[in-house]
Amino acid sequence: MSASDLPDELWARVLELGAASSALGFRDLCCLAIASRRLGRLSLHPALWSALLSRDFPSQSQPSSSSSTSTSQQQQQQQQQQQQVHPKSLYKTKFERHKVRIAEARRRAVFEAEARVLACRRRLAELEESMQAEGERMKAAVQELDNLERVRRASVALNVWQPQVVHGRQKQLVQQCTVSVDSRVSDLNMELKVCKQQIATYKNSYNKEKHKLNDYEEALKRAKYHPLQDSHTSGIINEPRAKRKKLK
């Protein structure tokens, strides 16, 4: 006895058990519908799609006893309208809405991932500017230290006999310095130490933000990844190359 010899009642019962036990999904039911006219007729049975509706799209909330009369009346009207519509059409409508909600959630996830990437890049740019500013500050301190060291050497050389021209230049250099060399050198050394510590802190934060950026970019790639779209795009890109190979 082949499968085609089974009566419709038995086929309907098999399909009902499959839908009730989650062994038969809407895709399977659609594939059966195009397999033969008989299966196409049996797959349109309202009980099958009602079972799929209750399984895949369960009611989110039940009307409570404290709900208002107008709300309960609206729910009753919606239930009556749903009863008049074929369960397959109702399933299709809910499935399309579910697809829209999934697409919106995916877009939100992409926007959030992009926002995290942009914020991380902004933070990296700020850290780069801070490190550059501290570097310029340290460079200026080193230059001033070099000038003060020349003033110190010139003040020591004034006590030693030198030609008049050299002596005049060193005296002029010492007179131009209006601050205490020793105290200023001490301040500049402290400033250099602070700058180095600050740059080290910025570098540490920069490396951490760089790791975060890599993680955020990977998360963005995962959020943007869509198997069907990517495979379709890659197929379009590789199609001319494949044609050229065939022509060769």
Could you give the topology of this structure?
Layout: H1 8-20, H2 26-33, H3 37-42, H4 46-56, H5 69-84, H6 87-157, H7 164-176, H8 181-224, H9 227-247
Describe the fold and architecture.
With 248 residues, this protein is mainly α. It has a domain at 120-225. It has nine helices and no strands. It has helices spanning 8-20, 26-33, 37-42, 46-56, 69-84, 87-157, 164-176, 181-224, 227-247. It is rod-shaped. The two termini are 54 Å apart. Mean pLDDT is 79; it is low at 60-68 and 231-248. InterPro entries: F-box-like_dom_sf. Residues 59-90, 227-248 are annotated as: Disordered. It comes from Panicum hallii.
**In what range is the share of β-strand residues?**
under 5%
Low-confidence stretches: 60-68, 231-248
Rg is 40 Å
Helix content: over 70%
Structural class: mainly alpha
Looking at how many chains there are and whether they match, the oligomeric state comes to single chain
Shape: rod-shaped
Q: Count every helix, treating DSSP H or I runs of 4 or more residues as helices.
A: 9
In whole angstroms, how far apart are the ends? 54 Å
Order of helices and strands: HHHHHHHHH
The major pleated sheet works out as: none
Number of strands: 0
Mean pLDDT figure:
79
InterPro entries: F-box-like_dom_sf (IPR036047)
Keywords: Coiled coil
Region (Disordered): 59-90, 227-248
Coiled coil: 110-151, 199-226
